[in-house]
Amino acid sequence: MKLTPTPGQTVGPFFGYALPFAGGEDLVDRTHPDAVRLHGTVYDGDGVPVPDAIVELWQPDQRGVIPQEPGSLHRDGYTFTGWGRAAVDATGHYSFTTMEPGSTGDGVAPYFLLTVFARGLMDRLFTRAYLPEAAAAVDQDRLLSSVSEERRGTLLATRDADGGLRFDIHLQGELETVFLTYPNTPQFTGPQG
User: Fold this and answer.
1) What is the pTM of this model?
2) Contact 112/101 with Cβ under 8 angstroms?
3) Cβ distance 121 to 11 under 8 Å?
4) Is position 86 within any domain?
5) CA separation for the pair 57, 165 (Å, rounded)
6) Greatest Cα-to-Cα distance within the chain, rounded to the nearest angstrom
7) What EC designation does it have (predicted)?
8) Considering only CA atoms, which of 68, 94, 63, 93 is closest in space to residue 83?
């Protein structure tokens, strides 16, 4: 029997009630001595906040080690798994409590890997949020230096007065965030355990 392909389906809106889980945005407790807030707003092509997106965060620890710990969905309060998921609020805002990542090797500036799910997307989107200090070392990071200078700023978080990090995500338009593709990536991403 010959099977014919079916058309792709947009992401959502099911994720608003099916994917968020209690504590998903807290990679570390707010009382952790190195806790930092990474937050921002997801915008559509018209610059309007998207009220029903999900943002996932993947990151190494402060030493640049990529955690291989199970249990991302069942936080135990002390094991850093390097993964979190946050639903945006009604104004498109997301927030994570985490630690600043370390570099994973020579020529790699520290960054957070973010995955965005939102209505109207045929697949999830990948981007990176580099620490603001990466701007000074742009020539040393292969990916960041490969992005044109006028678009590079869309990959740089900004530092809040309280030391937190702000990273807005623009899905389209003049300020569109640079999105990445990864060859041989399965069509679903998620934690194990």
Assistant:
1) 0.85
2) yes
3) yes
4) yes
5) 14
6) 63
7) 1.13.11.3
8) 68
Mark residue 163 as left, alpha or beta (left: phi above 0; alpha: psi -120 to 50; beta: remaining).
left
* DSSP H helical ranges for the chain: 15-18, 142-146, 149-152
Amino acid at 191: P
- CATH no. for residue 159? 2.60.130.10
d(CA 102, CA 72): 20
Give me the residues of the chain with pLDDT under 50, please: 186-193
The boundaries of the domain holding residue 35 are 15-170
| 176 within a domain of the structure (yes/no) | no
Q: Whole-angstrom Cα distance, residue 158 to residue 131?
A: 7
Output DSSP code: residue 104: S
Nearest residue to 55 (alpha-carbon basis) of 38, 36, 68, 72: 38
Is residue 190 a part of any domain in this protein?
no
The pLDDT assigned to 134 comes to 82
Query: What's the structural domain count of the chain?
Result: 1
